[in-house]
Structure formats: structure tokens, C-alpha cells
Amino acid sequence: MSTSSNFRDAIREAQTSALVGPSVVRRSLPFVGGGLILTSVGVYGGLGILGSNPGLFMPLWIGSIVLQLVLFFVAQGIASRGNNSTALPILALYGLVTGFSLTGLISIALGSVGIGGLGIAALGCGITFILASIFGQKMSESTGQALTQTVTLGIGALFLVMLVQLIGGIFIPALRGGLELLIAGAGTVLFIGAAFVDFYTLPRTYRDDQYLAAALSMYLTYINLFIFILRFLIAISGSSRD
């Protein structure tokens, strides 16, 4: 009996030996939720400005994109050092600015798939979170590493195709719409995979005191998943009308 117990303890120890932050995901979740709430506030404010003063919206939107990039790199660097008291207000501002930058997409979605489409995208993110939280932490080392490499390579290829769509669409307008359904579908699948990867990699990447850095990683996963689900629904809606 003692030999069997020691064997089980050894397996358990081997499975958790690679974890540097066993509680980091649990500690990060309230901040992920808070960031998403702030993002919705930013969207609400952006829609208000878009509706009341469209001429002012575009320069503010361009500024929000630039500010979003700056805040991301600053917040990531500070949070990765575990300086949470300094990182928290920067991350809060980042969430608001990200919401404002999504105003254009949300406005298009409201005009094409309606509030129901937004609900489907949000529900898809919620279901993905539940499944990822259950199965992502249970992945074996081989499965987790393989999925991580696949998703990382896939996201890199995805953004390369998006760059082709952006630049090529200037010269060949049909290319922009022609690639949209493919990009949106692939992005949805890849960021669903990224949600599972988060639950595997974050405890192996961040210490428990780096919970805001982990929260930023998870926040980006679910924001991007929401965006690509919404783009997919918009693309389907457009193709059905054609």
C-alpha cells in the first residue's frame, strides 16, 4: 500500500514540477473579468461619440490605436516584473482604450448581425472559457506543448494573411472580402485553441505574483476570440445577402 501511495505521489509531483505559478490563473481571473467590463464601457463611450459627433470619432479612434499599442507594451513590461500596483491602473486604461478601438467593428456588427450577433460572440467566449478551464489544465506535457506550438505557428500565419489582406486589398478590393470568411473562421479556431493553451502555459510561465501579466494574456485571448467570432458572423451575414 505504501509503495502504491509513493508511486502516486511521485506521479503527482512530476505533473506539477514544471509549474512556477500554480495559483496564477485563479488569481488573474477577477482582473480578466474587470478588464472585459472596462472594455464594454469603452465601446459604449465610443458608440456615443460615433453617434453624436462622427467627425470627432475618427481622429480619436486613430489616437486610441496608437495609445493602445503603447499601453500594451508598458503594462506588459511592468506586470511581468510583478509590479502590480503600478501595472493595474495602466491595464485599466488599456481596457477602456481597447473598447474604444473596437467601436467601429461593434457598429458594423450592430448593423449587420444585430445585438443577437454580439450575444452569440459573447456566449461563444463564455463556453470556450468553461471548456478550457476544465480541460486545459489537465493536458499532458506532450499534448500541451504540441497544441502550444500549433497555435503559435497558426496565429503567426493568420496575421501574415491578414497583412496580405490589408495591403492586397488596396490594389485588389475583391481580395479584402474574399479572404474575410477564411480569416475569421481560422482566427476563431486558433483563439479557441489559445484559450486552452493559456490554462496550460500560464502556470508554467508566470509566478503567482505575476497574476496581472497572466490576466493580460488571457484578456487578449478572449478579446481576439470575440473579435474573430464577430467577424465570422458578419462575413456569413454578408455572403448570405449576396
TrEMBL record:
Give the UniProt keywords, A-Z: Membrane, Transmembrane, Transmembrane helix
Q: Which stretch is the leader sequence? A: none
What is the protein name stated in its UniProt record? Bax inhibitor-1 family protein
Q: What top-level branch of life does the organism fall under?
A: Bacteria
Instruction: Tell me what organism the protein belongs to.
Output: Synechococcus elongatus PCC 11801
State its location(s).
Membrane
- Can you supply one Gene Ontology CC term for this chain's record? membrane
Alphabetized InterPro entries for the sequence: Bax_inhibitor_1-related
Q: Which topology term describes how it sits in the membrane?
A: Multi-pass membrane protein
The question of whether DNA damage is a record keyword is answered with: no
Membrane-spanning parts: 29-50, 56-75, 87-109, 115-135, 147-175, 181-200, 212-236
Q: Does the keyword Chloroplast apply?
A: no
